[in-house]
């Protein structure tokens, strides 16, 4: 990528520095939470920022980083009712094209963001991330993605954590989020992070949420970590978490399951596996019907599904304290899974992109013993995984457990339980390649990040295969 990142990053870092020294609420409006873009369409994109002001907020979109060629501009407003966050829906842009954007209140100018519209050329490149636990570490993996040349970043959930599961960094609020004010403060804290700001300033994001944007293993009817007797009605808490997410994330509001088209090459359907989940369904009927309709009628060469929890059936080896399967994944909803996988018929061009389980997997998704799709699971950016939880050195105890997983689940072609990081996804007509890039030390904000494993799926095979580094 070009020098864009450096300039944007420097401004973002300066703003973050000002915020942390307590000048955030000075009289002049400050863009202390950076800028973001998301939900790219062939003719437009959504822009985001936050600024405390009652004045008009001017925005500009240009073809160049120095704003010599401004192609769109307008005025937005915000208020305390939406926690001073700003969203601008820009249309009338060219497809598959880079743009730069900024906001201005009076003489105060925001950091510059870079984005890209939908559509595609002969290939697509995405970043993929999930499970960014502030308390458990630093987000060097986001900084690494910010420096890559990408069309967009797909975020598969646990963008925030509602609780404080770690001791590396202090969180705000210091307690578990329960109220609208709590969830807003949590989102605000995340968006002061230098790597969060540099990631958003560099790429459009396509995000869905998982459980920790509300509460652990949440559904529409509750969470094992929510006690209505002491914490109030679950519905009020879920509504607060939803409102804060919509205010603070560069997503269109209304529903999180939505479909993005990248020319004839790829279609990406993001799922919301929390808002409509009950004991009987992970999708809800309306979302299930929309997903199956897209998978069976869309003509793109590849179908991607942004899927917060693992689709493939998974038998868990005997481990102390762990059940033999994880009912929070699709394993808890076999009827929904069978309907979705059966709908694929003999089209073998579907790829599930998954987060949630803080580990790296490549899987040939089986139905009736035959592979019908492939699934790639990105590991956690920082959230604890096998070696963290067992307090053992990486690549020791996990090796044996990984072998047990593969012996019990022959459709699992690769599993790595210890490392943290991000992934990249490269899409061409012939193949999809999925790379895992691991962070050397999640406690170090300047940690090295390097590609560690690569797999690919050739078109119409529904099978994963390792690509030598
Ligand atoms: Fe997670």
UniProtKB/TrEMBL annotation:
Q: Signal: present as a keyword of the record?
A: yes
Per the record's keyword annotation, is Signal included, yes or no? yes
Q: Give the keywords, sorted.
A: Signal
Where the record annotates domain PhoD-like phosphatase metallophosphatase, the positions are: 126-436
* Pfam families in UniProt: PhoD, PhoD_N
Q: List, as start-end ranges, the regions of compositional bias called Polar residues.
A: 460-469
Signal peptide segment: 1-26
**Disordered: where is this region?**
450-469
Q: Could you identify this protein by its name?
A: Alkaline phosphatase D
* Residue ranges annotated for the Phospholipase D N-terminal domain, each copy included: 33-117
Q: Which PROSITE patterns match?
A: TAT
The record, for CDD domains, names: MPP_PhoD
């Amino acid at each position: 990528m070009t020098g864009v990142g450096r300039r944007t990053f420097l401004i973002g870092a300066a703003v973050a520095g000002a915020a942390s020294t307590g000048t955030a609420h000075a009289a002049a409006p400050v863009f202390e939470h950076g800028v973001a873009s998301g939900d790219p369409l062939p003719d437009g994109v959504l822009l985001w920022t936050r600024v405390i002001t009652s004045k008009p907020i001017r925005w500009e979109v240009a073809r160049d980083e120095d704003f010599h060629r401004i192609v769109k501009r307008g005025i937005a407003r915000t208020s305390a009712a939406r926690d001073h966050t700003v969203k601008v829906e820009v249309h009338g842009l060219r497809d598959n094209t880079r743009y730069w954007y900024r906001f201005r209140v009076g003489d105060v100018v925001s950091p510059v963001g870079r984005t890209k519209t939908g559509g595609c050329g002969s290939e697509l490149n995405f970043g993929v991330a999930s499970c960014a636990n502030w308390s458990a570490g630093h987000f060097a993996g986001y900084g690494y993605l910010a420096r890559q040349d990408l069309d967009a970043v797909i975020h598969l959930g646990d963008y925030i954590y509602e609780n404080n599961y770690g001791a590396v960094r202090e969180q705000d609020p210091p307690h578990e989020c329960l109220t609208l004010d709590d969830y807003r403060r949590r989102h605000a804290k995340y968006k002061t992070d230098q790597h969060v700001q540099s990631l958003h300033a560099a790429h459009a994001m396509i995000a869905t949420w998982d459980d920790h944007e509300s509460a652990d293993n949440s559904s529409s009817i509750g969470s094992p970590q929510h006690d209505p007797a002491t914490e109030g009605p679950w519905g009020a808490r879920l509504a607060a978490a939803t409102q804060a997410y919509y205010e603070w994330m560069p997503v269109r509001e209304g529903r999180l399951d939505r479909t993005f088209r990248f020319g004839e090459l790829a279609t990406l359907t993001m799922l919301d596996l929390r808002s409509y989940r009950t004991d009987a369904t992970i999708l809800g009927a309306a979302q299930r019907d929309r997903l199956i309709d897209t998978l069976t009628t869309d003509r793109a060469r590849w179908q991607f599904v942004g899927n917060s929890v693992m689709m493939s059936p998974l038998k868990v080896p005997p481990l102390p304290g762990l059940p033999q399967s994880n009912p929070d994944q699709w394993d808890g909803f076999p009827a929904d899974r069978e309907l979705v996988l059966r709908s694929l018929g003999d089209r073998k061009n579907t790829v599930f992109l998954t987060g949630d389980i803080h580990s790296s997997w490549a899987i040939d998704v089986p139905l009736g013993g035959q592979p019908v799709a492939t699934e790639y699971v990105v590991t956690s950016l920082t959230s604890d995984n096998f070696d963290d939880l067992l307090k053992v050195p990486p690549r020791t105890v996990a090796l044996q457990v990984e072998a047990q997983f593969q012996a019990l689940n022959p459709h699992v072609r690769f599993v790595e339980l210890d490392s943290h990081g991000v992934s990249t996804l490269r899409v061409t007509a012939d193949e999809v390649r999925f790379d895992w890039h691991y962070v050397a030390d999640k406690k170090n904000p300047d940690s090295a990040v390097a590609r560690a494993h690569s797999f690919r799926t050739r078109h119409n095979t529904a099978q994963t295969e390792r690509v030598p580094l």
